């Protein structure tokens, strides 16, 4: 029981109890809501150096990788509800180039992001989007698509995001998530 010196007068106890109950219910409702992921991709905003390893022949048993270096520039759009990435890399031997755009859109109703890839060579967005969210510093995003005439699952995983570095892996699963083959490892670091 609280000391008499901090007890409310009888006439004020009921409104105070009601206010406390309302605050309790509001706190419980807020705790039940999924975390707002609006700022999940804030760590990527700005200019990055890119080191990319790409598996040349995914889902064939091949272990032949090619490495690229380049840049990525990411900017916020629409009051943080979207961001755009301009991605430019060249293979270490200078023979292969990739220019791409990534558009990430935030859905405040589901607290998830949709990631759309832009194909600069063909002038179109490729779809479907890869959809997901972050939890405890790890982002997981999924979609289903066709790859070389067969249906697969695609997964992007963002790990180790800090203001100075981040890592994203793309994996394919031909067996609906029982096994995954990593085919894209993108490591980002801030320019010195």
What key attributes describe this structure?
mainly beta; Lipocalin; 1 helix; 10 strands; disordered N terminus
List the helices and strands and how they pair.
Layout: H1 10-32, E1 46-55, E2 65-77, E3 82-91, E4 97-107, E5 112-119, E6 124-135, E7 138-147, E8 150-159, E9 165-173, E10 181-189
Antiparallel strand pairs: 1-2, 1-10, 2-3, 3-4, 4-5, 5-6, 6-7, 7-8, 8-9, 9-10
What does this structure look like?
This protein has 192 residues and is mainly beta. The protein has one domain (42-189): Beta Barrel (Lipocalin), CATH 2.40.128. The chain is 12% helix and 53% strand. It is built from 1 helix and 10 strands, in the order αββββββββββ. The chain has a 10-stranded antiparallel barrel with strand order 1-2-3-4-5-6-7-8-9-10. The longest helix has 23 residues, at 10-32. It starts with 9 loop residues before the first helix and ends with a strand. The model is unreliable at 1-33 (pLDDT under 50).
């Amino acid at each position: 029981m609280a000391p008499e010196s901090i007890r409310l007068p009888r006439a004020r106890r009921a409104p105070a109890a009601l206010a406390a109950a309302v605050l309790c219910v509001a706190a419980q409702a807020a705790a039940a809501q999924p975390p707002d992921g609006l700022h999940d991709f804030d760590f990527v905003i700005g200019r990055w150096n890119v080191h990319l390893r790409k598996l040349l022949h995914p889902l064939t048993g091949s272990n032949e990788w090619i490495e690229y270096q380049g840049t990525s520039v990411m900017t916020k759009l629409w009051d943080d509800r979207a961001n755009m990435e301009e991605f430019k890399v060249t293979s270490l031997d200078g023979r292969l180039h990739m220019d791409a755009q990534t558009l990430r859109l935030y859905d405040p109703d589901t607290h998830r992001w949709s990631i759309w890839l832009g194909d600069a060579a063909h002038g179109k967005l490729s779809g479907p989007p890869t959809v997901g969210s972050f939890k405890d510093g790890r982002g997981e995003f999924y979609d289903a698509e066709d790859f070389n005439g067969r249906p697969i699952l695609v997964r992007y995983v963002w790990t180790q995001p800090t203001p100075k570095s981040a890592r994203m892996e793309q994996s394919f699963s031909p067996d609906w998530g029982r096994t995954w083959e990593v085919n894209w490892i993108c490591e980002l670091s801030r320019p010195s």
